[in-house]
């Protein structure tokens, strides 16, 4: 039988609406619909082939249309269990779709179970000619545990193009949620994971183009796995932009964006549209579009908005389906409506922005896109019905003395009167008691409202100093957390001065104000002022009744101050002291305890105790998730810290995934003020991952983007960023630039009382490496040796000393002092194993240095044994982890030398036996 002709762009333009119309009909109605179509013989043959997967289950068509019957049966019987395709043996058919069939198969070479996708033969006659190359380029860019991994692509006689993907033991997202009776919130949490996976692909310039519930599996452990990048498209692949996207047109129309239906260029916005449709289906179990008249689904995609969720759920239940239980937040309709806008420019700007709104809904926070102050206030009140302490909006919403953080048990009648007056003032000064007031008109931001309240407090409460102190103190705290630092300091300083002159104020109240000022000063790098205020806080606390919460806050600031000054052991002691105090407090303090573990993790991290730090961060994350789920903004702090920790442990893939989540969480706070890790800090972590992957140009590009705004941070933060930039420049061979960068970093450390800090000596040592590489080896080597000596004298055994030791050994080898080089690198080998620095990558780096030592003239027998035993493995590992690493080329040169049989390895070296 003759196959239909190729499906070119002109033919597809004639047939695509017919395919869509058939998809919109019930199977029993498709026979008459096909009979009514006036088509040429060639067009009818092409349409029947295109609709083959759609019509495969309609047995009435088998008799009516022999061509369909023959095609479908041939496709069904194409490959059976036990047959081989390429190097794979078929186990069973998993599924069939517009792209072809997917089989469970087993590799004949490795016995690995894989998913084997056989593309339909009639579809690779157009732009599928380049499909295998594009597919491999796209999928090899993706390295995310939530995306099914690509194994290979190949072509086989009588088969065509085949894709081999990771085998996933999982269940489709929709049935997984339905079978477990997941409620709305549980489904939203899984949807966020899907978004994170898609965002990971987008960062690699890959779009999916066929997102739908069946392309998302959930493993028995509850992990999301995104499948079928078989229709993925490289965003930078200009070669296919002008070609007809016939393979992309065989989408599931319920999730297809208008630009796909119209065969227009696709973008990341196309996936955002599909995610909106996927979310709709997940929450309703029906299509986003209601076609009661049996109209064209294509027309619905192009012209109709998605249904309201509540009505769709009612329709689903009336037809026997099982949408999830639980209330539907009205904001979900807004989110889906924005994601599924017909014009791509009107959708969310990124998948992460979409996910952030879902996180906001889960956390009871306002979604993006504005909203009146009344809307934001209503969200806040619903989120904090039990406790609204610590926010001016809560003060307004609740209007109770407790909102000032003054415990009722310690309120005197004077304090109660002061609180009542302060409440009345705030309710009127902020003008939010009336939903129709000017403050609720949308003309003022929250920051402007707070600024206006500070001005009114100073003028209208001039004769009420005690009340003014209460109001300014609370406004100062809110301004601090909103990132309005200057105004916060001004308000807190005035409140503190008023309190000190008030004989009726308590020691705990004064201690609290002093501590808050110290906290801000630490963040701004004003260490002397912070130390003075903390001394005052301790003095005030000792003069009054003990207050555990204030005591904990002071200890926290003392820990941060010690860390800032480089006294990491002292910092760790303060943080350890806090946790039992917090656990002894009455009530639920999991959120605050989580931040205590965050601080403890930071202290352990600074001591290079990465495994302990990881455990502390993980404990904090668990506390927050047990209290709030995955939707609390504070999660970002812990996720950010744990990401840095995972990088130092060499767990780079995990770090990349967690960094996505950290950015998501940090975006929920609505500001970057205070100690909030800014996008610049997360950008630096992205650059760190690029650096260890030896992608030095991208790392430098990220730092170039971040540094202008990092310059507005504390000088020590700037110095740390410059030190890292110098490290990347050295690896990239930019020695002159690195020298200037590192000299400036060291200058900033010295100028800001960090001259004895270990990070200053790291910058000094790296500067020595740059000087030596620039043609002044004696001067540079002296700098490096002096820096290592200073770090060693400090007693710190950690990543800083290990890095300098590796560099010192390399300098010794360059000078021909192989004995010293071996001693340095063997010491580094033991220290790397002890602290787990950089995991497999760190071990490979140390081994690479030992390999080069063993290849140098004068190397001892043990080092030569290690060279011949480990060289090939070290090269292979370094190629895999960091293909552009500067040590790789010297190692390859060593591998090309002739190997003496007498020097071949006979066993494991002594350093490995120790």
Give me the secondary-structure category.
mainly alpha
Strand content: 5-15%
Using the coordinates shown, work out and report the CATH topology of the largest domain: Transferase(Phosphotransferase), domain 1
According to CATH, the homologous superfamily of the largest domain is: Transferase(Phosphotransferase) domain 1
Under the CATH scheme, which class of the largest domain? Mainly Alpha
Radius of gyration: 32 Å
In the predicted model, the low-confidence regions spanning at least 5 consecutive residues are 56-75, 123-132, 234-250, 384-416, 430-444, 668-677, 901-914
Strand order of the largest sheet: 1-2-3-4-6-5
Shape summary: flat
Distance between the termini: 73 Å
Structure description:
By secondary structure, the protein is mainly alpha-helical. It has 7 domains: 9-76, no CATH class; 84-166, 2-Layer Sandwich (Phosphorylase Kinase, domain 1); 171-362, Orthogonal Bundle (Transferase(Phosphotransferase), domain 1); 365-505, no CATH class; 507-587, Alpha Horseshoe (Serine Threonine Protein Phosphatase 5, Tetratricopeptide repeat), CATH 1.25.40; 601-668; 678-796, Serine Threonine Protein Phosphatase 5, Tetratricopeptide repeat. The chain is 60% helix and 6% strand. The chain contains 42 helices and 11 strands. It has a 6-stranded antiparallel sheet with strand order 1-2-3-4-6-5, covered by helices on one side. A 3-stranded antiparallel sheet has the order 7-9-10. Strand 3 (100-107) and strand 4 (113-119) form a beta hairpin. Helix 30 (652-666) runs antiparallel to helix 31. The longest helix is centred in the last third of the chain and has 21 residues, at 861-881. It is flat, with a radius of gyration of 32 Å.
């Amino acid at each position: 039988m003759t196959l239909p002709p190729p499906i070119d762009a002109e033919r597809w333009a004639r047939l695509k609406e017919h395919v869509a119309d058939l998809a919109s009909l019930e199977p029993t109605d498709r026979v008459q619909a096909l009979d009514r179509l006036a088509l040429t013989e060639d067009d009818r043959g092409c349409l029947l082939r295109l609709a083959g997967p759609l019509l495969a289950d309609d047995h009435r068509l088998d008799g009516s249309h022999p061509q369909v019957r023959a095609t479908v049966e041939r496709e069904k019987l194409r490959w059976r269990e036990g047959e081989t395709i390429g190097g794979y043996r078929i186990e069973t058919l998993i599924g069939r779709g517009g792209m072809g069939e997917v089989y469970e198969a087993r590799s004949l070479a490795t016995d690995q179970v894989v998913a084997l996708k056989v593309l339909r033969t009639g579809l690779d006659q157009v732009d599928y000619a380049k499909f295998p190359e594009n597919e491999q380029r796209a999928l090899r860019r993706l390295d995310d545990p939530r995306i099914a991994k690509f194994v290979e692509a190949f072509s086989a006689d009588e088969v065509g193009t085949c894709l081999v993907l990771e085998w996933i033991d999982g269940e489709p997202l929709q049935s997984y949620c339905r079978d477990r009776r997941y409620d709305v919130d549980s489904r939203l949490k899984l949807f966020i994971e899907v978004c994170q996976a898609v965002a990971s692909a987008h960062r690699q310039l890959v779009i999916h183009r066929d997102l739908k519930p069946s392309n998302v599996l959930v493993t028995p452990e509850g992990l999301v796995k995104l499948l079928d990048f078989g229709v993925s498209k490289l965003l930078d692949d200009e070669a296919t932009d002008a070609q007809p996207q016939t393979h992309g047109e065989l989408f599931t129309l319920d999730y297809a964006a208008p630009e796909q239906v119209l065969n227009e260029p696709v973008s990341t916005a196309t996936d955002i549209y599909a995610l909106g449709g996927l979310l709709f289906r997940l929450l309703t179990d029906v299509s986003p579009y209601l076609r009661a008249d049996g109209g064209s689904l294509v027309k619905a995609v192009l012209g109709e908005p998605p249904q309201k969720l509540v009505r769709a759920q009612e329709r689903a239940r009336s037809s026997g389906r099982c949408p999830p239980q639980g209330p539907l937040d009205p904001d979900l309709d807004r989110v889906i409506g924005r994601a599924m806008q017909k014009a791509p420019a009107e959708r969310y700007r990124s998948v992460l922005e979409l996910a952030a709104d879902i996180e906001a809904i889960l956390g009871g926070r306002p979604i993006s896109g504005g909203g009146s102050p009344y809307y934001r206030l209503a969200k806040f009140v619903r989120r904090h019905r039990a406790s609204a302490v610590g926010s001016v909006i809560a003060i307004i919403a609740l209007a109770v003395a407790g909102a000032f953080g003054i415990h009722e048990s310690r309120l005197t009648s004077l304090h109660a009167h002061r609180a009542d007056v302060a409440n009345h003032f705030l309710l009127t000064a902020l003008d939010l008691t009336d939903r129709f007031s000017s403050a609720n008109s949308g003309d003022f931001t929250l920051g402007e409202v707070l600024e206006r309240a500070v001005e009114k407090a100073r003028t209208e409460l001039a004769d009420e100093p005690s009340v003014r102190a209460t109001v300014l103190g609370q406004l100062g705290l809110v301004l601090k957390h909103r990132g309005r630092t200057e105004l916060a300091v001004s308000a807190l300083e005035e409140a503190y001065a008023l309190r000190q002159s008030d004989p009726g104020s308590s020691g705990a109240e004064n201690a609290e104000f002093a501590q808050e000022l110290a906290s801000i000063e630490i963040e701004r790098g004003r260490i002397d002022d912070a130390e003075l205020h903390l001394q005052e806080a301790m003095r005030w606390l000792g003069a009054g009744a003990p207050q555990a919460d204030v005591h904990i806050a002071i200890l926290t600031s003392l820990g941060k101050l010690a860390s800032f000054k480089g006294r990491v052991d002292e910092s760790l002691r303060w943080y350890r002291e806090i946790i039992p105090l917090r656990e002894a407090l009455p009530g639920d303090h999991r959120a605050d305890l989580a931040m205590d573990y965050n601080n403890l993790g930071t202290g352990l991290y600074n001591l290079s105790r990465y495994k302990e730090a990881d455990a502390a961060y993980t404990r904090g994350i668990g506390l927050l998730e047990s209290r709030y789920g995955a939707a609390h903004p504070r999660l970002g702090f812990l996720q950010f810290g744990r990401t840095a920790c995972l990088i130092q442990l060499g767990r780079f893939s995990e770090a990349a995934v967690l960094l996505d989540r950290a950015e998501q969480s940090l975006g929920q706070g609505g500001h970057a003020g205070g100690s909030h890790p800014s996008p610049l800090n997360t950008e630096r972590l992205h650059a760190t991952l690029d650096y260890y992957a030896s992608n030095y140009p991208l790392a430098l590009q990220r730092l170039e983007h971040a540094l202008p705004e990092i310059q507005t941070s504390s000088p020590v933060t700037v110095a740390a960023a410059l030190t890292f930039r110098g490290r990347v420049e050295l690896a990239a061979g930019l020695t002159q630039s690195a020298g200037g960068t590192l000299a400036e970093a060291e200058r900033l450390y010295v100028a800001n009382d960090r001259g004895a800090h270990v990070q200053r000596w790291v910058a000094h040592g790296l500067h020595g490496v740059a000087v030596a590489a620039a043609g002044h080896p004696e001067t540079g080597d002296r700098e490096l040796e002096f820096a290592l000596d200073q770090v060693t004298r400090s007693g710190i055994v950690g990543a800083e000393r290990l890095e300098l030791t590796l560099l010192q050994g390399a300098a010794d080898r360059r000078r021909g002092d192989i004995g010293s080089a071996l001693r340095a690198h063997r010491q580094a080998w033991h220290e790397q194993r002890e602290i787990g620095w950089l995991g497999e990558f760190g071990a490979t780096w140390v081994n690479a240095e030992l390999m080069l030592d063993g290849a140098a003239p004068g190397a001892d027998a043990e080092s030569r044994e290690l060279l011949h035993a480990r060289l090939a493995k070290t090269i292979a590992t370094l190629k895999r982890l960091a293909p552009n690493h500067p040590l790789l080329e010297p190692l390859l040169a060593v591998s090309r030398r002739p190997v003496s049989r007498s020097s071949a390895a006979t066993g494991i070296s002594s350093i490995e036996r120790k």
